[in-house]
Amino acid sequence: MALQGTLKDFGIADILQLIGQQQKTGQLCLANKEQEVNVFFKDGNIVRVESVTRKKKDLIGNMLVRAEVITETQLDESLETQRRTLKRLGDVLVSSGALTADRFKKMMQLQATETLYRLFSWDAGTYEFKAEPVESDSEAITPLRAESVLMEGFRMVDEWPVIRRKINRLDMLFECTRELPPPVHKEEDLDAAFDDAFAEKKKDENKGEFKSVGDSERRVYEEIARVPGRDVRKLIDVSCLGEFETCKALLNLINLDYIRPLTAGGQAAASDRESILAKIGGSLGRLGASMATLGAILFLVMQLSGSLSLASSPASSFADPAAQRFISRAQIKRIEAALEVYRLEKGEVPPNLESLVQAGLLQPTELSYPWREPYHYRRLAAREFVLLPPVY
């Protein structure tokens, strides 16, 4: 089976789906300008993942040190033993008692899945699949079904924009605001689920998207409480959950008011909505001042030359097309600012300008001011759009 080309023509998801469905065995080579990753399949299952260009910090030994599973001294000693005996690093660490074989396998699994899921963020590159015999190493990672990787990858792509609205920096710090509730036993959890199914309104705060307390949330919360002052980067390392699961757990804990983000000075940060409004408010404030100045200039021009004629309707036309174009540039900036607010609130730009009116960000007349016809708007992608004045 010959399969090669560019990721713009055939995406990561399509490739994994094809290989998985046909239960192929072989090596998939993926490359872009900065990275090169090899994914090995056996009967359609992923049995090995290798990053040819993996950075030093992502090597398994450094991952174990950053996760505080082993010490720097233990790693150095194991690397020295590895050089002398030519044994695998994992075998040396396990035989020395630095960690158990099960713990090492879990870290190898995490390294492989993190490399795999990062592939879903690639928007360019090349791929080539070579059908050839592949030896699986069950001691390294548990084989992954291509379909499972696809489902998890799609989930991450969908949920990342929501997470990044609040967890938007790796140097963010947090503090605990209240204790977590005790874990719910399986029997109680089943009873609660049965009650919820027949309740008119669910009142359990631990239910709902991005609002649940599970094992991941408890692990991240414990790390925050155990050693205050750890940022997102360190929490990702020590939790051993991966970047996505750690950040999602942080967002859930914030939503349920179990933790809160801190500023660099150790003070509680403003809420997400407040920070958005402050950010956009500054831009709109400057825009408002510019509009006021522009209005004053236009008023003077009207008084002096009488060449402009403003009707009572905001969308009425001016006698001078140059003045229309001049004002239109400022109005486009205002619409763009409203689009940015909408994107920050919803995670994507709207399908049409009328959605800005429905969201209370603009008035209906502002969609065409100072023209009679509405502005030309077209959404290109989740965060991309075209906005142009009407053609006359």
UniProtKB/TrEMBL annotation:
Pfam families: DUF4388. It comes from the Bacteria. Residues 4-160 form the PatA-like N-terminal domain. PANTHER family: DOMAIN GTPASE-ACTIVATING PROTEIN, PUTATIVE-RELATED-RELATED (PTHR36304), DUF4388 DOMAIN-CONTAINING PROTEIN (PTHR36304:SF4). This is DUF4388 domain-containing protein.
